[in-house]
Amino acid sequence: LSLSQFPLGRRLPCDIYWHGVSFHDNDIFSGQVNKFPGMTEMVRKITLSRAVRTMQDLFPLEYNFYPRSWILPEEFSLFVDQVRMMKDSDPAWKPTFIVKPDGGCQGDGIYLIKDPSDIRLTGSVQSRPAVVQEYICKPLLVDKLKFDIRLYVLLKSLEPLEIYIAKDGLSRFCTEPYQEPTLKNLHQVFMHLTNYSLNIHSGNFIHSDSVSTGSKRTFSSILCRLSSRGADVKKLWSDIISLVIKTIIALTPELKVYYQSDIPVGKPGPTCFQILGFDILLMKNLKPMLLEVNANPSMRIEHEQELSPGVFGNVPSPVDEEVKVAVIRDTLRLVDPQKKKRKEGHLAGQHMVSYKNKVNVKSNYFMCYRCQALEHISEADEELLDTGQADRPGYDSAGSPEADLPSLCLKQVFPKYAKQFNYLRLVDRVAALFIRFLGVKGTTKLGPTGFRTFIRNCKLSNSSFSMASVDILYIDITRRWNSMGIEHKESGMCLQAFVEAFFCLAQKKYKSLPLHEQVALLIDFCEYHLAALDEKRLVCGRG
Ligand code: ADP
């Protein structure tokens, strides 16, 4: 594999495009790109919270791994009212909240509050939308310190959905011993925020050459410790896998809308894959909670250090190398176009050999290094994460370029566990209906005519639900969504608004059932009528 940089764009087509920040290049007609269109937008704090909330409305128990969140400024009064109600019903509840500016990163602009009235409504929140979230007061501590986990996840394909999780991740530590939040310690960022970019500035930050000590460690080293204390590490892994799959299921509907807009079906275009960084906090009872998803996780394997007074330089960071080199190496192996060709019976070419040599040297070294930390969890891990023969070394016939590479650190979890999670993919099916009625390719919003056609073709209008009421529903919901301060380059109904309208229709049609059943029934109803219509058209066409 030859790698070249094209800071100003490139002329010849490539097999794999590795973009630094986000997907946006209309001149790619083939190959694979390491970013999905719309991913950066989807994982912003507000969009992620909305997407998870839609799933929480349908499946509250399955989605209780995300802290209760409100969007500011638009839900400020809802936040105040709900907190007051919860306090009234449980006077012992003494919550803390964390306010996070939308689109912020590295802990930027984040602060803790004890009461909704503490929100600085002046200026910043009004001009800078944010998410306010219930603060997890009882995190799991190691060495008396709060820490979070960064896990790397490869979304290899959206359709069909393919997800891989890296067997090891990073644990990033605070640098002040943790205490539950009080008015006195709320502002102590080194105690409450685990961001590396913040804690690095604390005098207590420890750079360590060992992966199991210091302020940044491997997640596997934490698991080793937990396991030696008798914790059920197997269950923890399966909870983490389930959190990752459910989060991606919440993101896929809107991603598909972006995808068809940027890469319309039938037109030449690339396929996409993406490495995502999942930030997860473990609660004291070992329940993993999702903090956020990063579309552009840092892949740096060096850190800055003061080499001599006043002189800074980059030095290798063993813990970062340990985890990240394997993620990149395996991603390239999984998306390797040569591998696909070999599977299809072609011969491996020279390219592949040089790819192997290039990536192998470092990773082999670090895989050996990894093995010790992973040894005793490997059994549980393999059982949970094993993807079968396809991921094993030796899958490629002897003498193939991959035969002497270490086994994959990225383990397939979807479709492997699809059966357990497919029932959650209702909004995906709603999105498929939405996309069908978008009409002109390349748009992301549904016009009033498209919405009417949807109602008509799915036979949703009747004597008690006239076409006039359909228009009112369209206008009401669309207007509200378009006034929420979300960017709206196009006018019309966005997917989220369509989903809301769809839920309304489902509730109207199938009264007194749980929402997810109402929605599932309405989807079946629509799909049935559309299939009948397609059949009719096919017959007419033939005729
Ligand atoms: P950023 O993108 O700015 O890093 P995060 O959502 O990751 O924002 O939050 C920054 C840090 O704040 C996290 O790494 C974590 O330590 C802490 N944090 C965030 N949300 C919560 C929460 N709900 N409960 C407890 N700690 C949290």
From TrEMBL:
Pfam family, one: TTL
One MF annotation (Gene Ontology) recorded for this entry: tubulin binding
InterPro entries, sorted: TTL/TTLL_fam
Biological-process GO terms, alphabetical: microtubule cytoskeleton organization
Record key words, sorted: ATP-binding, Ligase, Nucleotide-binding
A GO-annotated cellular component: ciliary basal body
Protein name per Swiss-Prot or TrEMBL: TTL11 polyglutamylase
Organism this protein belongs to: Centropus unirufus
